[in-house]
Design a protein that fits this description.
This protein has 146 residues and is mostly helical. It is built from nine helices and no strands. The longest helix is centred in the middle third of the chain and has 18 residues, at 78-95.
Length: 146
């Protein structure tokens, strides 16, 4: 199996959104077809539909954790909530924030700021690092709890 951290980074550079990059990189481990992973994560780019909320790399990573550690019907959410909080803390230790707007310093919901973000190469310099960080944390959590 290929390295999901590198795969997530490569996918982002190929034009996938942050959330799509994360989930599609890990999807094969869970039998989730890439086509479905792309569709499921499609609204989460740019901090949920370009609203600058939770970073797509974070939401994609949380989806991966849910696939692995999420409860079955009737079971408690306590474990997945704790693991998700652990992920969020680890991500924030490296990047301070989890909100897209704060991470990239642009409000993508505003057309002029979206253009400015593109001109500032945010999607080539900042976002790939966020994707790599999120994928690395998820990978370490998957390995340590296997």
């Amino acid at each position: 199996m290929s390295d999901p951290i590198q795969l997530a980074t490569d996918r982002f550079e190929q034009g996938y959104s942050c959330s799509q990059s994360l989930l599609t990189a890990f999807a094969p481990q869970f039998g989730l077809a890439e086509e479905f992973a792309i569709k499921i994560t499609s609204p989460f780019g740019g901090g949920i539909a370009r609203q600058g909320e939770t970073c797509g790399a974070v939401t994609g990573a949380l989806m991966v954790l849910g696939l692995k550690f999420g409860p079955n019907m009737g079971e408690s959410n306590d474990t997945i909530y704790q693991l998700s909080q652990d992920f969020l803390c680890r991500f924030q230790e490296q990047h301070t924030f989890i909100k897209c707007k704060q991470l990239i310093n642009f409000d993508l919901s505003q057309p002029d700021e979206l253009i400015a973000a593109r001109e500032a190469n945010v999607f080539k310099q900042t976002c790939p690092l966020l994707v790599k960080t999120a994928a690395g944390i998820v990978q370490s959590m998957l390995v340590s709890r296997s």
